[in-house]
Design brief:
The protein is of the alpha/beta class. It has one domain: NAD(P)-binding Rossmann-like Domain (Rossmann fold, 3-Layer(aba) Sandwich). 42% of the residues lie in helices and 16% in strands. The strands form 4 sheets. Strands 3-2-1-4-5-6-11 form a 7-stranded parallel β-sheet, with helices on both faces. It has a two-stranded parallel sheet with strand order 7-10. Strand 1, helix 1 and strand 2 form a beta-alpha-beta unit. Helix 1 packs across helix 8, helix 5 packs parallel to helix 6 and helix 7 packs across helix 9.
């Protein structure tokens, strides 16, 4: 099988490409290698894929939000499925640079929908986000919940992606699965995420900035579990049978939460990082940031029922694995 993976130099895209390659598939990965965070880290991920998997992995540097460049870069390639994980990430950065989100997350998504439609892709799996739940106070978050009050532009673009995908599923019967990820962490993670920032600061003996005065909860999901859910979704396109799907669509379009199905206090996460680092953190308590959500908690009953998904990695296991990787990668 031959799959297209967007955002292949990114955290989740890299791991999904690796899993597909490990099982013997071919992967064409695309990424524009922007400088939102370390390009060196992105290139290190790509180097690992090329070294381990040789000619079965092809990388094409292109901005998928530039439609003519995307079509030209992919030529006449056909794919057995598309995993669209590339996006402009980050809730807080969307306040500073909103145009980057319109470019990547809106224009980019419609370009992938058109690519999938014109090449008759059997299935498009795409990344949504737990951010779409906004200020929803009913925990855990269910895919049946209303998600029309986003707290950030990032969240608004992800909800818009879901709506565009629903339209294409309805009009063109394009099979799609949207995945709402919950606080993904693990080796090869993003430097702008709290777990990386806290680990870096603690090992350097610097204070950590704890937003929401530390009174926040997150459904931390280890990368291996996320990838298992993505691949399970990819291998099981929704049928076009007129029946109601997860998320409410009668078209071939499903929506799933992928989380650990546990909401952990931020202080517990920090304590596990301290333990793994062998050092205590100096905390600098700060108020909630604009666009942030106080609590997240995934109801995963839909993906459990349909795909048999079960997260296996608790933060007690996952955080030490991240810290161990971080020490090795950064040489500390």
């Amino acid at each position: 099988m031959h799959y297209l993976v967007t955002g292949a130099a990114g955290f989740i895209g890299f791991h999904v490409a690796e899993r597909l390659l490990e099982r013997g598939d071919r992967v064409t990965g695309i990424d524009n290698l922007n400088d939102y965070y370390s390009v060196a880290l992105k290139r290190a991920r790509l180097d690992r894929l090329a070294e381990r998997h040789g000619e079965r992995f092809t990388f094409v540097r292109v901005d998928f939000a530039d439609n003519s460049a995307l079509v030209g870069a992919l030529g006449t390639r056909d794919f057995d499925g598309i995993v669209h994980l590339g996006a402009q990430a980050g809730v807080r950065y969307s306040i500073e640079n909103p145009h980057a989100y319109v470019h990547s997350n809106l224009a980019g998504h419609i370009n992938l929908l058109e690519l999938a439609r014109r090449r008759s892709s059997p299935h498009l799996v795409y990344a949504s986000s737990s951010s779409v739940y906004g200020g929803n106070e009913n925990l855990p978050f269910r895919v049946e919940d209303r998600v029309d009050q986003p707290l950030s532009l990032y969240a608004a673009t992800k909800k818009a992606d879901e709506l565009m995908s629903q339209t294409y599923a309805h009009l063109y019967r394009l099979p799609q699965t949207g995945l709402r990820f919950f606080t993904v962490y693990g080796p090869w993670g993003r430097p702008d995420m709290a777990m990386w920032l806290f680990t870096k600061a603690i090992l350097a003996g610097e204070p950590i900035e704890v937003f929401g005065e530390g009174n926040m909860r997150r459904d931390f999901t280890f990368i291996d579990d996320i990838v298992t859910g993505v691949v399970a979704a990819l291998d099981n396109p929704p049928p076009d049978d007129g029946e109601e799907k997860a998320g409410g669509s009668h078209a071939p379009h499903r929506l799933y939460n992928i989380g650990n199905n546990r909401s952990e206090e931020l202080e517990r996460m920090i304590g596990l990082i301290e333990q793994a680092c062998g050092k205590k953190a100096e905390r600098r308590l700060l108020p909630m940031q604009p666009g942030d959500v106080r609590d997240t908690y995934a109801d995963i009953s839909a993906i459990q029922r349909d795909l048999g998904f079960e997260p296996r990695t608790s933060i007690d296991e996952g955080i030490p694995r991240f810290v161990e990787w971080y020490r090795g990668y950064c040489g500390v």
